[in-house]
Design a protein that fits this description.
The chain has 289 residues and is mainly beta. Helix content is 4%, strand content 48%. The protein starts with a strand and ends with a strand.
Length: 289
């Protein structure tokens, strides 16, 4: 049995549940449309920095922040379009704005649609009219993220879309990775390097953008918790970023449709024609091993 409940916490919080697997997902629309937690049985799937989440002046570190209309950063936080220059901060604005709930259903899993529309604030940094409808569905041990990007402008709308999920990992030394590429670039360096299959978690920070993806999924097995996590994504996603910092109980595995600085380079940008919708899909599945 699937259900949706609402609780007034610091923010209005929607709780999606599937009793068959004791799976429960919480969504906070007004804090960037974010999924904050996923509890599968007794296991926390996501990490959440609750102090940062409670402070609306800070970006959220935890759950699944949403990336739109860029992923990563632009050089000098600047891009030029049709002869005009705009300022846009890292990962875009979607994760910082209040979203609204437009639909909910418990007929085929527990499903919630959150909605974001363009405004004077967004047009000042991204000159398009748009509507985003992001649909979260929990079914058993699978979380589906179906993202619809609609261009309401009279000219083509270039964009990137992605997610920044924080996966809980109390012992990163027990993680085993099956990634779709052994080629990556480090932030700020165009050099393509080879990945040997393991990360050095003694580094203060790891920020690898994997390119030339050979398949539409990545698998991480957490041997300390006997969990296997699979992140799968459709062919709109060209880049998979791995990010973590030393001393924190998380790692991020981020499907991006385009790499950093894509609004300047044009590399792998998606484009929605006037009055059309581009849909992308990501699935996260968790299994016991």
């Amino acid at each position: 049995m699937c259900a949706i409940a609402v609780e007034q916490q610091q923010y209005k919080t929607y709780i999606l549940s599937d009793e068959s697997t004791r799976s429960k997902v919480t969504v906070v629309p007004e804090r960037g449309g974010i999924i904050t937690t996923w509890l599968l049985g007794e296991q926390d799937i996501f990490y959440m920095d609750t102090e940062r989440f409670a402070d609306p002046t800070l970006s959220v570190r935890g759950g699944i922040p949403l990336l739109f209309p860029i992923c990563g950063n632009l050089v000098d936080d600047t891009y030029t379009l049709n002869g005009k220059t705009y300022q846009l901060k890292q990962h875009g604005f979607a994760r910082n704005l209040a979203w609204e709930v437009s639909e909910q259903s418990d007929s085929n899993g527990a499903s919630l649609t959150v909605n974001l529309k363009s405004s004077e604030e967004t047009r000042a940094v991204y000159p398009f009219d748009f509507e985003l409808n992001f649909i979260y569905t929990i079914r058993g041990n699978n979380l589906e993220l179906r993202y619809r990007h609609t261009n309401l402008s009279q000219e083509p709308m270039p964009f990137a879309t992605g997610i920044h999920p924080y996966f809980y990992a109390p012992d990163k030394s027990k993680l085993v990775f099956d990634l779709p590429s052994n080629r990556y670039q480090i932030k700020g360096d165009k050099t393509v390097q080879s990945f040997a299959g393991k990360f050095d978690f003694e580094q203060d920070e790891i920020d690898f953008a994997f390119i030339n993806l050979s398949k539409q999924s990545a698998v991480v097995t957490d041997q300390s918790r006997n969990l296997k996590l699979t992140v799968s994504y459709d062919k709109n996603y060209s880049t998979l970023v791995f990010w973590t910092v030393k001393g924190k109980d998380f790692y991020c595995l981020e499907p991006w449709s385009a790499p950093r600085n894509a609004l300047n380079t044009g590399e792998s940008l998606l484009q929605a024609e006037p009055n059309t919708t581009v849909e992308t899909v990501i699935n996260i599945t968790v299994e016991s091993v």
